[in-house]
Amino acid sequence: MWKYILKRILIFIPTLIIISLLTFWLSTNAPGDPVEQMLGGIMGSEGRTTDFMATEQAYMEQRKKLGLDLPLFYIALQPLSVPDTFYRIPRKKHQEVLRRLIAQLGNWEYIQNYYLKLKDAQRLLFNLPSGGPFRKYRGRAYEIINELFLTYDTVKIGFYTTLLTVTADSFAYEFSKLATDTNLIKNPVQEKSAIEEFRKASRELRNAYLDMINNPEVWKNYVPTIHWYGTKNQYHRWISGFIVGDFGISYVDKRPVAEVIKDAVKWTALINIISVILIYLIAIQAGVYSAVKAGSFQDQILTVVLYILYSLPNFWIATLLIMFFGGGAYFDWFPAFGVSSLPETAPLWQRIIDVAHHLILPVIALTYPALAFLAKQMRGAMIQVLKEDYIRTAYAKGLPDKVVIWKHAFRNSLLPIITLFANVFPFMISGSFVIEYIFSIPGMGKESYDAIMSRNYPVVYTVVMLVSILTLVGYLVADILYALVDPRISYSKKR
After folding, report:
1. Could you give the CA distance from residue 322 to residue 316 in angstroms, rounded to a whole number?
2. Cα angle value 248/23/253 (rounded, 5°)
3. Does 404 lie in the same domain as 334?
4. DSSP 9-50
5. Is there a domain that residue 37 lies in?
6. Which residues of 138-173 are buried (b: 16+ CB within 10 A; e: fewer)?
7. How far is the C-alpha of 349 from the C-alpha of 11, rounded, in Å?
8. Which of 27, 89, 271, 340 is 20 to 30 A off residue 435, Cα-Cα?
9. Is the separation of the CB atoms in 121 and 130 below 8 Å?
10. Which of 342, 362, 360 is nearest to 351 (CA)?
11. Is 251 part of a structural domain of the chain?
């Protein structure tokens, strides 16, 4: 048995590595920019270069804090046209556009020069005057530059770079007409210099574009290269942190994910432990009774009731429970939302009673469908066992019904029930999205739902990993219980 357990645990390792790689791949390819999400977006077209640089500095610092300034993996197989430092380009959208340009042209040196010139034009844009008629030209230049950052169509890039130079020239012309207006222009020398620098940057951007499209090196896209980055990469940082309990930072409230999960999992575990105890206590009794009375009127009634319970959707039952017993249209017997209404300073016994009062409705809504399903499984397994020869032999020996049913038949009918028990472990972490959301329970189900809706991926992928681990643990526990329940099952080699 111990050798089998050790073997299964060793098999867990490659399984979890594969799951972690898949989870990491999903996290890196998820839509959106986590840094922008944590910073609340990027600055608009107003402000000056100092403001823009401060925003960029904050972006880079947050990116480094999240480890996004590192390469993705230990090694990278890429075309010769993609540099080994491509991961240093900060914004995810910019990386996507540059990869598209590389796929079309293959000349990274020219593409890089075009990108740097575009960054220069963006930086100088914020020094342009923005009062009066200048606001129109500055806003137009801002829109053009934003389009260039998101455009990989070389024809459109040519159009936008030309339009940017025309806009810069129009800006300079408008400034020359109003240069004597002291109410509009406070510092003519400085603002004229800013306009000329922007005009120069727009022309250099146009020239960089022409160099880029006139010097293609597409052949580099067909020459593979391997880059080795060592352990300083995002996957190693993530998985090594996960092993020691560091699950990253929540994108929403910037709290450690471990702290977020710790706060939520206690309520999910509490509700599920109560629910599982009730499920197995009631379902086993109901299933055994139905099997023993198979074909009788009592069995038919119980079977119909179980089918009805299993067919009713839990979100509908949860809504009815709130309507009838949670202060809706009928009785106000139980709290409909939350898990407690008392402060932390209240006596412990009062808080326990208050929490139990709050959890009655959600536990009922969570318990009844699984109870009905498990009772049907128990009934089916028990009926099969009661047909076995050794059961008839036990009855022939004159053993009491209770001894035959509970000592001989019940034990051998537990195998399918044990299989279902393996699913309890991951459910303790994942929780129930529907029940927790309807009853406003701050558990893992509601936390996971909120994380998905807000694209809070560190929480989502941590839950995925923990559920995967607990699923493997659950199946291992089920295998051990098989051997304990049925002596005929042995994992040791027989000589």
Report:
1. 10
2. 30
3. yes
4. HHHHHHHHHHHHHHHHHHHHTSSS-HHHHHHTS---S-S-HH
5. no
6. bebbbebbeebeebeebeebeebbebbbebbeebee
7. 46
8. 27
9. no
10. 342
11. no
Query: Rounded distance, CA 350 to CA 109, Å?
Result: 71
Q: Is the domain of 262 the same as that of 239?
A: no
pLDDT at 79 over 50: yes
**pTM for the predicted model, two decimal places:** 0.80
CA–CA distances in Å: residue 227 to residues 27, 77, 284, 385? 22, 7, 59, 61
Residues pairing with 78 in the sheet: 225
CA-based torsion, 209, 210, 213, 217: positive or negative:
negative
Tens digits of per-residue pLDDT, 237-257? Answer: 999 999 998 998 888 888 899
State the DSSP code for 493: P
Residue pair 489/418 in contact by the 8 Å Cβ criterion:
no
C-alpha to C-alpha distance for 366 and 443, rounded to whole angstroms: 13
239 contacts: CB under 8 Å, gap ≥ 6: 20, 24
Token pair 């996507």 in the structure block, residue: 96
Q: Are residues 108 and 184 in the same domain?
A: yes
Domain of residue 103 covers 42-243
Say if residue 211 is in the same domain as residue 326: no
Percent of the chain past pLDDT 90, that is, above it, reads 37
Residue 239, token pair as written in the block? 């998985």
> What is the residue-wise DSSP string for 78-134?
EETTS-TTGGG---HHHHHHHHHHHHHH--HHHHHHHHHHHHHHHHHHTTS--STTH
Provide the token pair at 117. Answer: 């010139």
Q: Does residue 232 come out as left (phi exceeding 0), alpha (psi in the -120 to 50 range) or beta?
A: beta
**236 and 67 in contact (C-beta within 8 Å)?**
no
